[in-house]
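Record type: ASSEMBLY
Status: queued
Input:
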Amino acid sequence: MLVCLIVTAICLDAAQLKEARVTHVVNDVKLISAQAAPHAATVGKSVRDGDAIGTGAASRSELILSDQAIVRLGPKTTVSFGEATRTMNLGEGAMLFQIPKSAGDVKIKTDAITTTSTGATGIIERHGQFYVKVLVLEGTVRCYLTNRLGESLLLQSGQILITKPDVTALPEPADFDIAREMKTCLLVREFQPLPSQRRIESEEQKQLNLIAKGTYIPSNLVILGRGTQVTLVNAPSTTPPPKPLTNTDHQSRTP
Amino acid sequence: MIRSPHFSKFPLRRPLFICAAALIIAGQPTRGQAPPGSAQNRAQLFGQGALPSPTVAPAAEVEGYAVASPNEKDIGEQQILKRMEEYKPFTISIYSPFYWTSNAALVSSGEQDDVFVAPGVTLMYRPRITNTFYLEVGVVQQFFFYDQLTELNFASFDAIAGLVYYLPQFHNLSLRGYYDYNRLTDTDNFDELFVNNSIILNAELPFRIARAQQIFVGLNLNLSFHGNPESPRRNNYSLYANYDLALTRSFSLDAGFQFVVRDYYSGDRTDVNEILALSANYRVQEWLTLSALSSFSWNQSNQSVFDYSVANIGGGVALTLKF
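Status: finished
Output:
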C-alpha cells in the first residue's frame, strides 16, 4: 500500500514536471494538442509534451514552465513543446524567454538552430525560412547547429545574432543597446516585471559604462521591431535609463 | 670563425643539441606554449605557436536580408552598438613544459630516456600598420634542463623581426617573413654552442570546418644564411597541417603533422623528419593555460648514424598577458 502511494506520488510529480502553465492571455491564443481540436487557451491551462500554442494578430501570451522558466509569445507566433516541456520548437513568430539558473538546461529550436541556456533572458524570433534572430538581455545563451558538430556560439548579454534558419555556419554576433530594447519591447512592458529585471538593469549599466569609456559607440543603425531591415536614424544617442515598467489591464499571471 | 671553448668539449654532441632543440620545441603545444620566434624550430611549430594566429576577425555586421518584415514592434528596437576593440600590441608569455622523452640524445642506437623541463619566456611587440599588415619584433629565451643527462642541458635565445600580411580575400591566407637570430648556449656560463642567422618564410591557409573546428595547412621555409659553427647549419623546408577542435569554451584538442626536409650545408647530409604532435589544452583563465602534450618524431637521414625516433610525453603551464 505504501509502495503504491509512493509510486502514485512520484507519477503525479513527474506529470506535473512535464507541464507548462498558461499565465497570461491577450486576445486570440489557441492551444493545439493531439487529443483535442484547437481551442482557446485560458489562464491556468496546462500545456503538455506534444502540445503547441499559437497566437493570432495583436495577441500575446505567457507561460511558466514547471521549473519557473518564463516564456512570452508575441503575435502570430507558434511554439510546440517536447521533452517534458524543456524543449520548445519555435515554428514562427517571436518569444521572450527567461530561464532561471535553477531551471537546468532549456532548449529552443528553430529549424537547424538550437538555442540553449542554463540561466538567461533573451528574445528569439523566426520568420519562415527567411531569418532567425536571437537577442540576449542578460546571461549567456549558446546557439548551435543541430546537425553540425562544433558549430556553436556563445551569445553574451547585449549580443544579437541574425542568421538564416537553414544556415550551415553561424555568423558573428553584433551588439545592441539593451536599455533601448527593454524600453521598447512590448513583451517586457506589457507584462509583469521579469524576475531577472535587476540583472538586466545591471547589464544596461555595464553597457552605459562601456559607452562612456568608448568601448561601445552607439550607431545610427536600428532594427525597428521584428525583421532584419536596418533603419538609419538621425543621431545616435545613448538611451536614458529605463522608466519603471507598467502593467496592463490584461489577465495577470497566476501565482 | 669563432669557436666556443665549451663546444669543443662536445664535438659529437653539438648536432644533437640542435636536433634536440628543434624536436623538443616542435613537441610543444601549438598554441600558447611554443616560444614565438624560436629559430630553427619555427618551421616545426605547425604555424600556431610561434607564428601568431590571425587577429583579423570578420567584422560583426547586421545585414538585412531582402525579405518582408512581419512589421511587428513587439520585440522592441535593436540599436546596434559598434564595439571598439582595443588593440594590444605587446604579448608576454611565460611557460614551462615538461616531458618524459624516450630518446633524450636523439641517437640511432643506445637510446636513453630522461625527463626534462623547458621553461621559457617570450616577449613580442606586434604593432598594426594597417588592418591586415603587422610588424612583429620579439625575443625568446628558453632553457632545457634534463634530469639525468645533464650534459645535454642547453639554452636557446631568439631575436626576430618581420612582417605579417593577411589576405582575407584569399581564404584568409597569411604570409610571414622574418629575420631570426638564434643562439644556443650551455646553461652554466652561457657559452655559445651555435649561432644561426636565417630568414623564415611562411604561408598558412586556414580552413574552418565549423566554428569550433579548424584545419591549418602551411608551408615553411627556414633558410640559414650564416651560422657558426658551420656543420649544424641547415635549411628546413616543411609542410604542415594542424587540426584544432574546441570541445568547450575552455578545453581544446590539437593535432598536428609536419613533414620536414633538412638540408645541411656541410657533410652532404639530408634528413627527412616527420613529427606528429597531439595536445589537450585547458584554459583556466584568459591568461592561464594548462596542457597535456605529446609528440612523436621519426628522422631518416642519408647518413644512417643520424636516424632516430623519439616520443615525448608531458604537460605544461603557460601564462600569457597582452597589453
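Annotation: Chain B touches chain A through 37 residues (CB under 8 Å).
Annotation: Chain B has one domain: 5-54+86-322.
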